[in-house]
């Protein structure tokens, strides 16, 4: 009972952030393309939410599989053996986006209102995620970039799914949500304030999903909540 949560960590904060430095150095300048992809996603959702749905799902499928292989399998497993059990989840998320969103074309990213606004906020936060490194006194080389690192990729995915409608949603939401919880707990255990970014993303997503459920229920019953 004398053990604390940090006693179970397999690495120090210095080793953790050094891992991102090595990862970014190895993939440079792919970060530029990844950030451009994030901006393109926002543009497609804002301007052509229906016609671009298949391509958005295909892009997310590729990013989840790439992040699972390049970061989790090739980097994170080296300092945290438990990450090997998370790699298949990233592959599953990629396959789900590929099959449900791209091949079956069963998603539409045209939800607006409060939930849609929260979705755009989370997308913007994911794209701006690299700013957290200098704000916390770390070098730019340890920044986490959407499409390269798992945290901003998961947050962007949650935000995009808040803008989506379709039957696959219950299958697509759990993995990015669970990663935010897992990564947030890891950061909190290391004493990193950045953990609250992950927790806030989870809270916002839960609130937006609850709001959508209330609106759907009220629409079926003929009652609508006041704005």
Task: Explain what you see.
Helices cover about 70% and strands about 0% of the residues. The longest helix is centred in the N-terminal third of the chain and has 27 residues, at about 55-80. It contains ten helices and no strands. The chain is mainly alpha-helical and about 230 residues long. Helix 3 packs antiparallel against helix 4 and helix 9 packs antiparallel against helix 10. It is globular, with a radius of gyration of 18 Å.
Layout of strands and helices, then pairs:
Layout: H1 13-27, H2 30-47, H3 53-79, H4 87-103, H5 113-127, H6 132-135, H7 150-162, H8 169-172, H9 174-189, H10 195-221
Helix pairs in contact: 1-3, 2-5, 3-4, 5-7, 5-10, 7-9, 7-10, 9-10
What is this entry, summarized?
By secondary structure, this protein is an all-alpha fold.
Q: How many strands, what sense, and barrel or not for the largest sheet?
A: none
| Individual helix count | 10
Low-confidence stretches: none
Q: Report strand %.
A: under 5%
Rg over CA atoms, rounded to whole Å, is 18 Å
Pattern of helices and strands: HHHHHHHHHH
Based on Cα principal axes, name the global outline: globular
The end-to-end span amounts to: 49 Å
Structural class: mainly alpha
Give the overall average pLDDT.
89
